[in-house]
Design brief:
The structure is a single chain. The chain has helices at residues 9-49, 115-118, 128-138, 155-167, 183-189, 198-201, 222-226, 228-245, 250-254, 276-297, 310-314, 321-330, 341-349, 354-358, 368-382, and strands spanning 52-53, 58-61, 65-68, 73-78, 81-86, 107-112, 143-147, 174-179, 302-306, 336-339. The protein has 383 residues and is an alpha/beta fold. The chain folds into two domains: 9-49; 52-382, SGNH hydrolase (Rossmann fold, 3-Layer(aba) Sandwich), CATH 3.40.50. The longest helix is centred in the N-terminal third of the chain and has 41 residues, at 9-49. The chain is globular, with a radius of gyration of 26 Å.
Length: 383
């Protein structure tokens, strides 16, 4: 006889393999079905909540090179993550689209700085500027914090923008300027076309101009824009793996192109052409002096704040040249000089995973915890 009994061991084996294959096929189909549903719902959610693309809100400005479009409500992308981005009627990053009058009955403090102060990668409420704003609103005697910062600002722009705001009639009681370590590099290499000094305007050429791409050059990032939930999950898994491998820290020990001017003996090469390190410092001081003189005439106090990049903490640069330059500058010129290097170094001394806890992984900027630490220290000194 051929074929064997229908209840033989070989028959049972074939039957088991058949059902195992069917079960695997059904399970695979369910996974694909659930994944398709997730992507569909994510696409619908991301599309409905997308609003406008905040990369279009970063616009050129003929007076101070670049800034933000007013009354903007949308999303921006920093790195691989999309986050909410809103500006007020002044074109300042804010918590809501609101009309900000040029004058107010309560006390006002104008915050000026670059991407750290803008709070790049963070929704306004998670940034130290947003935390200061909320704390100021909750006080019995209200203090309003206005955030005039934007990515890639430096002393040339600090001066020209504050001057422009004053000339347009904006009234504020104090300027708190967050001097970033990248300022010297920016002054050595950019913004010559807006400088009042002829010797710097001589470097203005066709390649000079806004460092912001402007609306026409915005490139779509389809996955980040239209699958934001899935993308956040992907980034979380990716960062968790990289955190476990420890390779997100490597750049803070090797990439010193921007902060290299603060490291004794470090050769910055041609990264700070055409002015070089000392030329960048001289131009920074000149424009900051112009700003302090302007504010002095208007009887507006100036406070300067310095804080460390992750690379500076990794280098143990506790009394950085960044600190000494602005500490010396503030003598006789500033209401206060606030050095937050010790605060961040103390946090690093107490936590071996300080980088992961204070900075965006694989980046130089503060995460929510870093912004919270900035806020807590500033609140002690500014209220």
């Amino acid at each position: 006889m051929s074929g064997g009994s229908p209840f033989s061991p070989s028959w049972f084996g074939r039957l088991r393999r058949h059902f195992t294959f069917r079960r695997a096929l059904v399970n695979t189909g369910m996974v694909i079905y659930c994944l398709a549903l997730l992507l569909l719902f994510d696409f619908v959610y991301s599309t409905l909540t997308a609003g406008e693309d905040a990369r279009r809100a970063r616009i050129p400005n003929p007076v101070y090179d670049h800034g933000f479009a007013p009354d903007f409500d949308g999303y921006d992308i920093w790195g691989e993550v999309r986050y909410r981005f809103i500006t007020d009627s002044l074109g300042f990053k804010d918590g809501s689209v609101r009309k900000v009058p040029l004058q107010a009955a309560h006390r006002r403090i104008l915050l000026v700085g670059d991407s750290f102060t803008e709070g790049i990668g963070m929704a306004f409420e998670d940034s130290f500027a947003g935390l200061l704003y909320r704390a100021g609103e909750e006080r019995t005697e209200k203090v309003e914090f206005l955030n005039a910062a934007a990515a890639s600002y430096s002393p040339s722009i600090y001066y020209k923008k504050v001057k422009d705001l004053i000339e347009k009639g904006l009234r504020f009681d104090e300027v708190v300027l967050f001097s970033d370590t990248s300022d010297v590099a920016d002054e050595a290499t950019h913004y010559f076309c807006i400088d009042d000094d002829p010797k710097y305007r001589a470097h203005c050429g066709p390649a000079e101009g806004s460092r912001q791409s402007g609306p026409a050059a915005v490139k779509p990032r389809f996955f980040e824009d239209y699958f934001s939930v899935t993308n956040r999950l992907r980034v979380y898994v990716k960062q968790s793996v990289q955190l476990w491998l420890g390779n997100r820290r490597k750049s803070i020990n090797t990439d010193h192109r921007v902060i290299g001017w603060t490291i004794p003996g470090f050769d910055v090469g041609h990264h700070l052409d055409p002015l070089g390190v000392e030329g960048g410092i001289a131009r920074s001081l000149q424009n900051m002096k112009a700003l302090s003189d302007l504010l002095a005439v208007k009887n507006i106090p100036l406070t300067i704040v310095v804080y460390p990049w992750a690379q500076q903490i990794a280098q143990g640069d506790r009394d950085s040249r960044q600190v000494s330059i602005w500490r010396d500058f503030c003598a006789g010129r500033c209401k206060a000089f606030i050095n937050l290097f010790p605060v961040f170094f103390d946090a690093a001394d107490a936590d071996k995973n300080w980088y992961e806890h204070l900075y965006i992984l694989g980046d130089d900027h503060f995460n929510k915890n870093g912004h919270r630490l900035m806020f807590e220290e500033l609140a002690k000194r500014l209220f």
